[in-house]
Each structure stands twice: as C-alpha cells, then as structure tokens.
Amino acid sequence: MIEINALHKYFGKFQALSDVNLFLEKGHCYALIGPNGSGKTTLIKSILSLVIPSSGKIQIDGKVWGNNPEYRKMIGYMPQNPRFPDSMTIGQIFSMMKDVRGEYVADEELIRSYHIDQMSHKKLGTLSGGTKQKVNAALAFLFTPQILILDEPTAGLDPVSAEILKEKIQQERRRGKLILITSHILSDLDDLISDLVFMQEGKIMVQCSLDWIKQETQQHVLTKAIASWMKNQNVDR
Amino acid sequence: MIVRYFLLFLSLNLLSSVLRCHVIEVGSHSAIHHIREALALAVDGDTIEVGRGNYQEQNLIVSKRICLIGKDYPVLDGEMKYEIISVTGDSVLIKGFHLINSGVSGTIDYAGIKIYDASHVVIEDNILEKTFFGIYSQNAKNCIIRNNRLSSFGVDELQCGNGVHCWKCDSMQIIHNTVMNHRDGIYFEFVTNSIIWRNVSEKNIRYGLHFMFSNHDTYVANYFHQNGAGVAVMFSNHVGMFGNNFTDNWGDSSYGILLKEISDGYIEGNSFFSNTTGIVMEGASRIVTSKNKFSENGNALRIQASCMDITLQDNEFYSNMFDVATNGSLVLNFFNHNYWDRYEGYDLNRDQLGDVPFRPVSLYGMITEKNPPAMILFGSFLTKILDRTERVMPGLTPENLVDPQPRMKRFLL
Amino acid sequence: MNKLLKYVIADILRTKVMIAYTVLLFLISFVVFALENSPGKGVLTMMSVVLFMVPLVSISFSAIYLYNSAEFVELMLSQPINRNKVWAGIFIGLGLSLIIAFAVGYGIPMLLFSAADGWVLFLTGIFLSACFSGLGLLSAVRVRDKARGIGAVLMIWIFFSIIFDGLVLFLSFQFADYPLEKPLMVLSALNPVDLSRILVLLDMNISALLGYTGAIFQSNLGTWSGMVFISIILLFWCVLPFFWSIKFFRKKDL
Q: Can chain B be said to touch chain A, i.e. do they have 3 or more Cβ pairs within 8 angstroms?
C-alpha cells in the first residue's frame, strides 16, 4: 500500500530522514516508534506531502502521486497537536470538512461514542485539549479512509476515551486497513499492533512483526521486548 | 471722490434730459432703416433710438454728442470683419445693444465698442458676444462702462482680446460688468484714478484682471472666478483692493493675485478661496494686507525675498495646504494678530491672542520651495513627521518669520 | 469555486481584531467627515489615516493570522486539496476580509456624508488592503519563526511608509540639479503607499499644487489615464505577492 524508497530529507544542514526504505501493507497496524527527534513525524508528513522530501520516492497504492492531491482521499490523518480555527463551532468544522472533501457518506461512529454531536454548537477555541483530540480522532476516521495515520493518538485522552479509540483502531484493522501509529507510550500499543518500525536519527533501525520480536527477545510485553532488543543491539555494536 | 463721481453722474443725466431735442428712430417700421443714416442725420444732442432687428452696418463711427439707444436689444452684427462701434466724440451714450461677431485679427485690435480719445462717454446695458475685444478705451477720460455683459470665443490667447480694455485712460468707472471667455477680463495699462467696482470676471483665458503701470486705482467688491491665471497687478503704486473675491483660480501657474513690483497698496477684506496660491508677492513693498480670508488654497501666501515692508495682520488662514511659502528669510515683513488654523498655542490671559508665537512656514514647505520635485511626497507620513518635529523644535524655518501674537479664534464674518 | 474561501472569510470576520478594526475605522471616518467643513478636506485627512492604518493592520494581521493558523493549514493540506488551492483560499480569503472590513468601516461614513470625492480613496484602501495582506502572507510564509516574521512585517511597513519616502527626499536633494520628475515618478511606482497617495491627489486635482511634478503626471498620463495607469500598477502590486508567495508555499515544510 505504501512503498518508500531511498527517502532523504534535509532541513537546512540537518538531516531529518536518511535513506528511509519502507514497505507497509494493508491489514497491518504499524507502530512507528523511536526517541524524540528521530524523524517519525517528518516521515509521516512526507507521506502526506506536508513535508516535501529532498530526494526519494513515495508510492501509495502503487503510484507516485507527486502534486496530485487525490491520493489523500485514501488517508485519514490525526495530527499531533490539533488546533482548529477558534471561532468555528464543532458542528461547523465537521460540515466544513465534508464540504471541502466533497464526501458526504461518513463514518460517524466516533462522533457518537464520544458524544461530539451533543456539543456541536461549542466553539473550538473553548475546548479542552482532550476534547480537541476527540474531534481530531473523529475527523481522521470520518471518511472511512484506507490508510490511517495517527500521530500520538491517545495523548491527552482519558482512559475511557483512549479505550474507545483503540477499539475503533482494532476494528478498522480487522476491516483490512493500513494503520500507522506513532506513540511514545508503548504500553498503549501492546494489543493493537502487528508490526514495528523503529527509527533513530532519521534512519529505520528495524522493521519487523511483533511476533518476531517477541520470539527473538523472549518477552511478551511490548515495552520489555523492545527494551531488551535495543540492549542486544547495543551489545552487538 | 465718490461725491465727485456722483455729481458727475447727476449732471450727465441732467444734461441728456435737458438737451434731448430730437429723437431719431431707426427700424424696419421706421422711416430710417439704417443706423448709419441716422448717425449722418443727427446733430449734437440728438437721440437715436434703434428698434428691434438685425443690423449689419459694418463700422459705425459715433463722432457727435448723441445718445445711441437700442430698444429690445437690437443686434449689431460685425460679420467677423469690422469693429462694430467706434466712439470718437465726447459725451456719447451707448445703451441697450446686442453686439456680435466683431472682426478678429492678429494685427488690429477689433473691438465691440472702441472709444478713441474721448471723454464722458457712457457705455451701459449692452450685451457683447463673440467680439474680439469687448469695450476698448484708448486715451479716454471720465468714462463709465456699466452693466455690460461681455463674452468672447474663449479658445486661446490669440483668438480672443480683452473684455474691458483701457489704455492710457484716466478717471474711468468700470461698474458691474460681467466678462467671460476673453483673454483678460479687465485690462488696465497706464490708467489712473479709476475705479473697478462690482464686476464679475470669470473663465477668462489668462487674467481676470490685468493691471499694469496704473497708479491710484481702486477695485472693490469684484468677483474673480476660474480665470486661467487669476489676477495680476504689476508695476503700479497706490492701488487699493477691497472686498474682492478670488475663487477657484486653480492651475499650474495660477494664483488669486500676483503682485509684482507694487508699492503702497492696500489689500483689505478680500476673500481667497480655493486658489493654487492666494497671493504671490514679488518685489512688493509697503503693502498693508489685513482682514483677508485665505481658505482651501494650495499656498495661501507666497512672499518672495524681494518684498519688504509688507504688513500682514488680522487675516484668517484656514484649510490651506500651506500657509506661507517663501524663498528667503523675510526679515522685513511683519506678521501680527492673524488667525491660523494650524496654531496649537494657548492663551492664559484670555485676551484672545495666543501667548506663543506661530511660525507659518512649514519645514516641508521650505523643502519643496528649494526642491520642487519633493512635492511628490505631499501628504505622506514622512512630511507630517518632519513638520511636527520642526514645530516642536524649530531649527530650519526662517527665524524671523513669526506671528508673535496669533489669534485664538476666527473673527471675520 | 474555492470552498475554503468562505470558511476563511467567515472565520476572520468573526475575530475580535477584525471587528475592532472595522469599528475604529468607522469611528475615525465618521468623526473626520463630521468635523471637516468640506468633504474634500475630509478626504484629505482620511487619506493620511488610510495610508497609515490600512497597510499596518493588513500586513500585521495577515502575518499573525497565518502563523496562528499553521495547524489549520496543516489540517487542510492533509485533505485531498491542492496546495495552490489552499493558498489561494487563504490569500483571497484574508484579502477579501480586510477589504470588507475597510469597505464597511470607511465606505459607510463616506456614503453617509456623501463625500463623492472619497471614491478614489475607497478604491485605494481596497488596493492597499489586498496588497499589504499579500505582503504579510509573503513574509509569514518565508520566515518560519513567528517573532522574526512579525518583525519583518513591521520593517516592511516602516519601509514603505517612511523610509522609502526618506530615500526619495534624499535622492531629490542629491540630484537636485537634474530633471528629477520622471525618475521620481518611476521610483514611486515601487511603493504602493506612494502610488495610492498620488492616485488620491491626482483625483482631487491637487496635482496643480504639485507644480511641475503634477504637471508631468497630468501631461504624461492625463488625469484619467494617469489614474488608470496607477490603478494597473497597484493591481499588479496586489497580485505580485500572491505569485511570489505561492512559489514558497508549494515547497514549504509544515
């Protein structure tokens, strides 16, 4: 579904992505993990063309799209720090998104389960971080996209809401969608993901399935598995 | 003076009524069809009454003491070839004609009515249209030109003469005429002891009033409006200008009045409204300018350094773009008790006079005076800052050019 | 045609700054037209206000708006919308909002006092709103840091409002011995504020006062065609920032 070849990105002299090669498939849920500043968000934004790569090739659904924005119809994106126009109400932002995308058949499950429709008259400027995140999540899932890119999806959400979101993610994965999550809180992802992509200093250190890493490290908890794998890597080095 | 004129006027009236011996009628229904014949028949003291009609009489020469009176404005047509009436005799009255189409020439000054070397001629209530010169007096004395309406072609300076033109005259009275579309509305050269009163001179190509080498003249309550270059008063002395209106003389080199080489004059109670420059003074001296209103002019006043002993007091300046412009330091002129709308001083003792002097020359005004292209910055933020700074800390504007006691309030009607 | 446009405009027109700007402009225009005894004088006073305020508000508001709505822009760009369209939406939306605010704030008092002389200033204010909002967006899209960006925007404003005129004055003194009218005329085309000022002055027939310079304007262009010519350059000034900034926006990393 997503194929990335030899992707480089420089911000001035700073190299944010260096020779990234990645192949992501349908029906998988990838965790994109790595320390702060390892290039996770840059990679995501490159896929969305929010960041223009310095070199390399990104194919989505088997095609290089270039300036053609149509491929983003396939993608639902949940950015890290959502901020919406302050003077708009929740209802307006949803109708605006529908209007702008020109799609009116929508998946409103999250809207219902988060009770967003009940506060549709509220102005976005007055919302708390958590509520904004809920709106953010609902927007990402709204148009039943084939690919879901979620940047720190559970950040700022209370446990119940986080659970609802995770439930939704799993459900979508079962429907055969490609899901790419970045998160610092690894424990959150434990029961969600099928594959791991680990990044450091702009490079992909490893891409593997969860089962494989658990086997390799003999650990069943994700956090521990990764920690122990990293330790081994360092020893190898 | 006025009494003298009044007596003169009275005696003329008396004379004409006492001496009215014969009335010769001219017209299509009368025995005499042509004015020319009537003029030949008439003797001193006769009256010729011309009935309605269109008369092509070529050039009429009036050399006898007669009254030539038109009834219902008979038309005298000069066919674009002739001077219509030439007055060569004294004590002639010409009244109530409609004169059209005088000759036009580059070498001969064709006029509607021309007075040659005569005195006590009265020209009144005539309408002159499409005449080259209007009413032309040459070497005349004690003549009255009154209630006439004059207009010319209004095309360019070569195709129009002057409206009321006086050359080498004395004791003339130019009263309540309307002159438009001529070259100069009223033209005086070597004219002395005369009065110009209640005339309207507008839309003339060059000057509304053109005044040269004419001393001891006064003009009162005239209205000069939309003339190409305003009014020029040059090379004269003892000229009085009272209660005139100078309005909308707006153009590249236009002004309300130009005073050039003028001395011992009075400018009082005039109004200068919406002129490019209200008054321009060049080489003027001993002029008292008081109780005039200057409003909405580009420059209210331009005093060149060649002027001296100019007194400016009790005038009002408001809504002008620049109040006073000068090219020198103006040491020898006196400003006092004027009202300036830009004045921001205070009056602690409440005598209606400001306690702080006012400097009417703005810094930006000085800059454009030295460097005219800088005018392109007019109205910009920068020039406002410059002027404000200069007003707070004067340093560059002429030090002696101040109104020491400006008025706090407007006081003229 | 551009769905984003109406949302941008609706969003901006509801901000407090915009409402305050409109009200302030309205009050100033109202007072000026009420106090000045002739509408012509009122327009001249308003010209100073408009030339000062409209560029300042337009340029700084636009820049700050773009900085503050970075996430919104990101959200829009993650949708299947072309970058050019997003930029056009923001650009035109901001420009139109500022124009609407100006048109209401200045236009209504002008109509109330039927200051017929004020139409050219009205037109000028619209040009300035569009042009400076464009310049604000241009600098905001070029400079990533908000503080530096706002600094840059203020510098641009000071440059066009004061420094440029200072340079013109300086040059006019330096080359006072040469016929400067035409070069200065060409030079003033480089500054939309100066152009606007000259446009208003030409219309008010103050060009006679401008002496030879005014005569040059009038004889070279004639009042009417001169005004059309200046309007075209001003229009160019409104469009130029768009095409310049869109080049940067296409390559901008968000």
A: no
**Would you give the DSSP letter of residue B256?**
S
Contacts of C4 in chain A (CB under 8 A): 100
Q: Please tell me which of the candidates B276, B376, B382 has its beta carbon nearest to residue C184.
A: B376
pLDDT digits (tens, 9 = 90+) for C39-86: 677 888 889 899 999 999 999 999 999 998 888 888 888 888 888 888
For residue range C207-246, what is the model confidence (pLDDT) as tens digits?
555 555 555 566 655 667 777 888 899 999 999 999 999 9
Nearest to A11 by CA among A46, A59, A48, A35: A46
Question: Can you give the residue ranges of every domain in chain B?
Answer: 19-228, 237-361+398-413
Q: Is the pLDDT of residue B201 over 50?
A: yes
Query: How many domains are there within chain C?
Result: 1
Closest chain B residue by Cα to residue C182 = B373
Nearest-5° angle of CA B405, CA B407, CA B412? 140
pLDDT for the residue numbered B172: 95
DSSP string, A51-68: S--SEEEEEETTEE-TT-
User: Which of B 202-261 lie inside 8 A of C, CB atoms?
Assistant: 250-252, 254
- Rounded to the nearest angstrom, the minimum Cα separation between C99 and chain A is 20
Helices C119-142 and C192-203 cross at an angle (nearest 10°) of 180
Contacts of B350 (CB under 8 A, 6+ apart): none
Choosing among A50, A60, A84, A93, which should be mutated to test the C contact, i.e. which has the most C CBs within 10 A?
Answer: A50
Model pTM score: 0.79
pLDDT higher at A228 or A12? A12
Alpha-carbon distance B162 to C249, whole Å?
A: 69
Nearest chain C residue to A103, by CA: C80
- CB-CB contact of B192 with B216 (8 Å): yes
Element housing A182 (H / E):
strand A178-182
Which H/E stretch holds residue B56? Answer: none
**Domain B19-228, CATH number (from 3.30.420.40, 2.60.34.10, 3.40.50.720, 2.160.20.10):** 2.160.20.10
Rounded Cα–Cα distance for residues A179 and A194 (Å): 10
The secondary structure of residue B228, as a DSSP letter, is S
pLDDT in tens, C130-175: 999 999 999 999 998 999 999 999 999 999 999 999 999 998 888 8
For chains C and B, having 3+ Cβ pairs within 8 Å is answered yes
* Nearest-5° Cα angle at A101, A97 to A103: 95
Strands in B231-361 per DSSP E: 231-237, 240-242, 245-247, 257-268, 271-273, 277-282, 285-290, 293-295, 299-303, 308-313, 316-318, 322-326, 334-336, 339-340
* Helices vs. strands in chain C: H and E counts, helices first: 12, 0
Report d(CA B96, CA A68) in Å as an integer: 89
Residue B169, CB-side half-sphere exposure with 13 Å CA sphere: 32
- What is the per-residue pLDDT across B247-303, written as a single tens digit (0 to 9) for each? 988 776 788 999 999 999 999 999 999 888 899 999 999 999 999 999 888 889 999
Name beta bridge partners: A78. A150
Mind listing the pLDDT tens digit for each residue in A90-126? 888 888 888 888 777 778 888 888 888 888 888 888 8
Contact C71 A83 (CB under 8 A): yes
* Beta-carbon separation of A52 and C251 below 8 A: yes
Domains of chain A, each with CATH number or no CATH: 2-82+146-236 (3.40.50.300)
Whether complex ipTM tops 0.90:
no
Two structure tokens written together for B221: 């309550």
Neighbors of chain C by Cβ distance (3+ pairs < 8 Å): A, B
Q: Which domain holds residue C46?
A: 3-251
Mean pLDDT of chain A: 84
Q: How far apart are CA A233 and CA C40, in angstroms?
A: 82
